[in-house]
Amino acid sequence: MKAVRFHQTGGPEVLVYEDVPDPTAGPGEILIRVDAVGLNYADTMRRRGDDYPEASPVPFTLGIEVAGTVAALGEGVAGPAVGTLVLATPGAGGYAQYIAVPAQIVIPLPEGFDAVNAAALVAHGMTAAIALRKSGRLVEGETVLIEGAAGGLGSFLVQLAKLYGAGKVIAAASTPEKRAIAEKLGADATVDYRQPDWAERVKELTDGPGVDLIMETAGGDNVNRALDALAPFGRMVYLGQSSGKSAQIDPWRLTAYNHSVIGIYIAAYAAWPELMAETMNELIGFLTTGKLSINIGKVMPLSQAAEAHRLLENGLTTGKVVLQPWIEA
Questions:
Q1: 103 and 72 Cβ atoms separated by less than 8 Å
Q2: Which of 103, 143, 118 lies closest to 37 in space, CA to CA?
Q3: What pLDDT digit, counting tens, does each position of 135-155 carry?
């Protein structure tokens, strides 16, 4: 089968589209024919060799989230039946035409779903839902600031914050086009977080105190500027660092305003499969009733994974980028 792997860390050019042995479903596993795999910033971090919670031994196959059809069932697995459209979050290995995964992480999809939308939903939709409610402890009526609001993750954060009862959602994005997308998704106001005074603009939009909850995705110098926009007793959820840069926070600055900074690593929630299944079913329900939409920015062949990484890292995408392993360039 075809897969994309890196044999050394570095820029997008280290991604190699190559032939690898076909996997088989072992005991307790399901073999999935992958029709779509979602691209995430975490993929770029692992490819670059950035500090990451899990090791990436080479040759390494990226791919956190996949959607496709059941190709085979391993010993001891009763279903879903071969041919069923499913999604899964293996954490790695999805940049391939087939993947064998534990049966317990496979979720059948209802009729009417397609693989591209399913792959876009898994990691970003789940992360957004859990970040807002579990990590961020969003309370109805609170104000929320969402960075990267037109991206794959940000698109879900804007919509779900409104669905979960946020009083005001402020979207931070780098271009007028991206801010317009965030407004169409339901943001009440927008700011350009590349401007040096953007935190003051957020305070103006909240009549002084700042926001109750920040979804931090940029990292680097942006983190301390975002904390300037946080109201007393506010929380910041650190979802990632699309800038590729970490942040230095003086713990003492958190004290006077009773600020909290909370990290989230969605893969760790695999230890709570019931929560993951409940959250996914909720998201599917929102989609099927028209309350939630999936913002697909670009669909590309898996063979163009390197170009997809370049686009994502250079901020040239909006919405979710999805790769298709069976489509030729």
A1: no
A2: 118
A3: 999 999 999 999 999 999 999
The H or E element spanning position 87 is strand 85-88
Find the largest Cα–Cα distance for the chain.
Answer: 61
Using alpha carbons only, give the angle 325, 297, 240 rounded to the nearest 5 degrees.
Answer: 90
DSSP category for residue 302:
G
Q: Give the separation between CA 199 and CA 216, rounded to whole angstroms.
A: 13
pLDDT in tens, 163-175: 999 999 999 999 9
CA distance 254 to 180: 33
Specify the DSSP element, H or E, that contains 246: none
> Residue 133 — pLDDT band, cuts 50, 70, 90?
very high
Cβ-count burial of 165 within 10 angstroms (0-12 exposed, 13-18 middle, 19+ buried)?
exposed
CA dihedral 185, 188, 193, 196 (to 10 degrees): 170
pLDDT surpasses 90 at 132: yes
Question: CA angle 185-191-194, nearest 5°?
Answer: 120
Q: Which pair of tokens denotes residue 59? A: 């040759």
Structure tokens at 249: 């926070």
Whether the CA torsion 133, 294, 180, 149 is positive or negative: it is positive
174-177 long-range Cβ contacts below 8 angstroms, 24+ apart: 174/315, 177/150, 177/318
Domains annotated on the chain, with CATH: 2-122+270-324 (3.90.180.10), 140-263 (3.90.180.10)
